[in-house]
Amino acid sequence: MSGPQPAGADREGGALTHFDTAGRAAMVDVSAKAETVREATARGRIVMQPETLALIAAGRAGKGDVLGVARLAGIMAAKRTADLIPLCHPLPLSSVSLDLDLAAPDAVEIAATVRTAGRTGVEMEAMTAVTVAALTIYDMVKAADRGMRIEAVRLVRKSGGKSGLFEAP
């Protein structure tokens, strides 16, 4: 008895899909894709009371170095994206960088850039890094401000692979 075919090109031979020939969710087979250097940058922000931002900037948060811990959490999350997002490929990342900027009067701006040489992109890893960094900031200062909001997590740039360069407007 033969089972369903692996996910990959759709029934018409076009775009990749997360469904096998029986219509069930499956991880896309990317083995036929060329290995290229792939890079993605995502951005987001966590909005808070100006007093909470001042607490972070002054290093007076009760749980320690908020930005240092958030940076580390984002990097670690990027490396574990396949464990968090169903059907996401585990990738050997060659670099992950996180920038946390206190320039806004009431927000920490977060940018993550992730890079690999592989058969599939790192967009999910970059967005996961931003999201987990923001959640870490929330966790570390929630006693001072439970009304914080995580906003505008989005892909702003990606390069490599068959689809080439994408830059958000």
Automatic annotation (TrEMBL):
From the UniProt record, which GO molecular function terms apply?
Answer: cyclic pyranopterin monophosphate synthase activity
Task: Specify the pathway.
Answer: Cofactor biosynthesis; molybdopterin biosynthesis
Record's catalysed reaction(s): (8S)-3',8-cyclo-7,8-dihydroguanosine 5'-triphosphate = cyclic pyranopterin phosphate + diphosphate
Q: Which residues form the Molybdopterin cofactor biosynthesis C (MoaC) domain?
A: 27-161
Q: Which Pfam families does this one have? A: MoaC
Matches recorded under Gene3D superfamilies = Molybdopterin cofactor biosynthesis C (MoaC) domain (3.30.70.640)
Superkingdom per UniProt: Bacteria
Annotated catalytic residues: D139
Q: Enumerate the residues binding substrate.
A: L87, C88, H89, M124, E125
* Alphabetized UniProt keyword annotations: Lyase, Molybdenum cofactor biosynthesis
Q: Which InterPro entries match?
A: MoaC, MoaC_bact/euk, MoaC_sf, MoCo_biosynth_MoaA/MoaC, Mopterin_CF_biosynth-C_dom
Function (record text): Catalyzes the conversion of (8S)-3',8-cyclo-7,8-dihydroguanosine 5'-triphosphate to cyclic pyranopterin monophosphate (cPMP).
Subunit and partners = Homohexamer; trimer of dimers.
Its family remark reads: Belongs to the MoaC family.
Protein name, per record: Cyclic pyranopterin monophosphate synthase
In the UniProt record, the gene name given for this protein reads moaC
